[in-house]
Amino acid sequence: MSEAEVGQGEAEVGQGETALAALRAGDLDAFGDWLHTTRFATTSAATAVLHSLAAAIVTEGLDAGFAPTATVDEITATLMGRCGIPVSPTALGATRDGSQSRRAMVESGTLDDAALRRELSATYDEIALLRAERDALESRVDELAGARVLADQLAAELERDEWIRARLRRFKATRPVRGLLYLRRRVQARTSSAATR
User: Fold this and answer.
1) Cα torsion through 60, 70, 92, 96, rounded to 10
2) Which of 44, 57, 160, 177 is 20–30 Å from 7 (CA)?
3) 56-99 pLDDT, tens per residue?
4) Every domain of the chain and the residues it spans
């Protein structure tokens, strides 16, 4: 291996540490920027760095936007895709921890106490968030039910008003009422002309 390749490999490991530090700090923007700007010398070098990053995401329970059931290999493949590197199953290889997921590690008890505490804390936070969303949705449903009752009442009022208007139109269309309306207009016209004199 040449000196340039060794230097490139050390730079990639350093870049992997940069991404890991960003994830540990919860800075997903910096992590995303790292994924889009990082260039690797070879696909195998990219696989090695991204696989170790994926293993850290699963082992430490870092929030990188992956489901708890996502395995190390699945996360590695996703990260490689985000870096613009074509992914093939042979490129990932078969590793011992490649099929492990965060959920499987919690269920098997292979996580240390600190990791379990982080996982439990994140789960409680997620439960609290889901409860808040549920409460907001329930209040919205109550508001919509109230609006529905008001809409039904308004529809009933409008229907009754339309029925009354229809009855008035039919009543005004009868001959005696038309005659009375005509006489009324004539009387008003005479009264107004007399008042203007």
Assistant:
1) 60
2) 57
3) 888 777 777 787 778 888 888 888 888 877 776 555 554 445 55
4) 3-111, 131-172
